[in-house]
């Protein structure tokens, strides 16, 4: 009995190494794709948190006394700033601005609104009056123009911009979220 030994050739070491290198490159490309997707998702999550904090601050400002708030922004020309209103020190200074904070807002709750902490990250919030908004509005036409004019609307609305940024880092402008809105008078709420 004779066995025929056929010459079978297997993969050489170089072919095996080449296959491993190709698979490694493909897996690294796929891994980088998932890492980029995760960082993009995390960035969107942070922006969503900051937008919700801005909406919360705008909602807080809407609940304040409109006439006092209007006096604070329009007449006195101040902005609600997290740098001025620190926790445990909001409106404690003896300046006119500190007195305006104490007269207009409940400074303890305002400090908490301007310095929220979410998931271990502290944010700062500034509320800025937008005086230039009214000049850019088109005049209403038709039947609406007799009912509604800009001067009457101005007496009931305060256009503001809420800016949110991380407190512990010097964040570039890309990491700042801005939400624009109006503080409305209690008479039309």
Task: Report what the structure shows.
This protein has helices spanning 13-62, 66-75, 96-104, 107-114, 143-147, 150-154; strands at residues 117-118, 121-129, 157-166, 177-184. The chain is of the alpha+beta class and 189 residues long. The chain has a domain at 64-188. The longest helix has 50 residues, at 13-62. It is elongated and about 110 Å long. The chain starts with 12 loop residues before the first helix and ends in a 5-residue tail after the last strand. The mean pLDDT is 83. One of its GO terms (biological process) is establishment of competence for transformation. Keywords: Competence, Membrane, Transmembrane, Transmembrane helix.
Secondary structure blueprint with pairings:
Blueprint lengths: L12 H50 L3 H10 L20 H9 L2 H8 L2 E2 L2 E9 L13 H5 L2 H5 L2 E10 L10 E8 L5
Antiparallel strand pairs: 1-2, 2-3, 3-4
| Tally of helical segments | 6
Low-confidence stretches: none
Beta-strand portion reads: 15-25%
The biggest beta sheet is recorded as:
4 strands, antiparallel
Indicate the structural class.
alpha+beta
Radius of gyration: 30 Å
SSE series: HHHHEEHHEE
């Amino acid at each position: 009995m004779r066995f025929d030994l056929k010459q079978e050739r297997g993969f050489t070491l170089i072919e095996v190494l080449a296959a491993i290198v190709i698979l490694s490159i493909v897996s690294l490309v796929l891994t980088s794709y998932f890492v980029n997707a995760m960082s993009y998702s995390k960035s969107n999550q942070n922006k969503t948190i900051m937008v919700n904090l801005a909406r919360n601050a705008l909602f807080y400002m809407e609940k304040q006394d409109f006439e006092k708030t209007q006096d604070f922004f329009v007449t006195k020309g101040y902005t609600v700033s997290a740098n001025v209103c620190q926790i445990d020190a909001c409106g404690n200074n003896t300046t006119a601005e500190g007195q305006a904070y104490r007269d207009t807002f409940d400074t303890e709750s305002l400090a908490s609104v301007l310095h929220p902490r979410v998931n271990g990250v502290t944010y700062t919030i500034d509320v800025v009056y937008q005086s230039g908004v009214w000049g850019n509005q088109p005049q209403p036409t038709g039947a609406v123009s007799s009912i509604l004019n800009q001067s009457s609307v101005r007496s009931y609305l305060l256009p503001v911009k809420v800016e949110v940024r991380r407190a512990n880092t010097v964040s570039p402008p890309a990491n700042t979220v801005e939400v624009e809105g109006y503080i409305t008078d209690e008479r039309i709420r």
